[in-house]
Amino acid sequence: MNMNKKLICILVCILFFGATVCPSITGYEKVIVKKEINDYNNPIKYTLESGVLSNNSWLEQDKLIATDGAEDCFSWCVSIDGDYALIGASYDDNERGSAYVFKRNGTTWTEEQKLLASDRAEDDNFGWSVSIDGDYAFIGSHCDDNENGNYAGSVYVFTRSGTTWTQQAKLMASDGASYDYFGQAISIDGDYALIGAPFDDDDNKGSVYVFKRNGTTWTEEQKLRASDGPTWEYFGRSISIDGDYAIITAHDEDNVKGSAYVFKRNGTTWTEEQKLLVSDRDFFIGWVVSIDGDYALIGSPFEDNDRGAAYVFKRNGTTWTEEQKLLASDGAANDLFGRSVSIDGDYALIGSPLDDSYTGAAYVFKRNGTTWTEEQKLLASDRAEDDDFGWSVSIDGDYALIGALYGDNDNGAAYVFIKGNQPPDTPNITGPSQGKPGIDYNYTFVSTDPDGDDVWYNIGWGDKEIIYIYGPYPSGEEITLTYNWSEKGNYLITCWARDIYNTTSNTTTLEVTITRSKATENVLLLSILERFPLLRKLIQQFGFGL
């Protein structure tokens, strides 16, 4: 430090005491700077909605709507498998019904084909139930009139070849009769399909039919019924199959309290393994079910003044035991939490379509050991009252599909959420930490996104209550920006990165000290000495030559 600087420091300490405080970024105005210009003097104002920037595990990827949709109950039911989504619209075209296949390409889901029954007729409700697995799509038409009688019901099998889905078969119960509603529920896994007829028999006990595929032919292999089935049981209202296990509801069983039955396959025979009950059941405990591996999920939407609940059962050998009752953290009366459920691996997805004035929501629960914890509440980005988001749900791997029965202005919509998006790495800032006022300095910023997503940089230069947003830039690409500060001071450059899903990185900073020039220092010193002549003489006695 030269003599002038030392003197100024001494004088400042004598005359006054001050401190420089770096401002917080809280409440800053946010502006965006075009990538092609990077002109911080002419930014474009850009306001981020509250809560948009987050590090949620599940992020909305796409909104799916029918190209010809018009209040058709699109998303009455949904099913997702790999890159394909199947969505039912059972009220399409005077309730003839239809179903839509969507295909994923990168981050975009595109309608690939609209599926129609070859013999469709009014009031068939084709698309009331759907299930997709691999190259096969099953679509229920539970009000279909056929040789078994009025409303006997049927199921249509479509198979994919390339990008084309073709009807392969129409399935009906071998002993079907009028008003059985065969096809009200479907679940397919590999070579097996289970189809529910909950009104089968005059007493509405209900049945489930097992179909087995051999080549291109699906053949009825067995008819399942509850071993203790009473009158009005509606066995087969909801079905789920995974490997050698199937779970089937009987939601009016036992004085409308409801139950679920687990069946196990041994060779070509399915045998009832256990009836599942819960200790605190209210009624309709078995409204919907889903099974995956050793876990079964049962929805009970009318529990506790229609707040709803869901129950997880765990298999140990041949015994299924209730592991946990799941509740929404912010559940309220009439939410119907548990109206739809789906389980895959360590994740459970539960719909609550009447949450928040029928706006609807879906909840993701994550398993850790023997405990299931609510991980996130999912909401549609364009949510509105009466959308019934969460009416139907399906989860597979990193993707969740959620139906909003009256979304998109009552036309119906479905939303795809993606799991596991990683935030960008904390940015690195390089550049000078000292400088003079009014001089341009270059600073380099870089952040890498683990998923390879493009990156936006959110930067505060420390001299204005503004956050500048630069981008987007390819992951890992260095950007160099020029900035200057007009006044002396300590400034904190603040930067964080966000990806295209608005997932944000941690914040990094670089402190920059801007000092006055030597000429400015001399002017300041002379000004002080002119005001204090005795101090000038004192300094001269120390040999400073002033």
Word description of this protein:
The chain is mostly beta strands. It has two domains: 3-53 and 423-520, Immunoglobulin-like, CATH 2.60.40.10; 90-394, Integrin alpha, N-terminal (Methylamine Dehydrogenase, Chain H). The protein contains eight helices and 38 strands. The strands form nine sheets. The protein has a seven-stranded mixed β-sheet with strand order 2-1-35-34-37-38-32, with no helix packed on it. Strands 3-30-29-28 form a four-stranded antiparallel β-sheet, with no helix packed on it. Strands 4-5-6-7 form a four-stranded antiparallel β-sheet, with no helix packed on it. α1 packs across α7 (518-531). The longest helix has 14 residues, at 518-531. The chain is elongated and about 115 Å long. Residues 1-28 and 34-54 have low confidence and may be disordered.
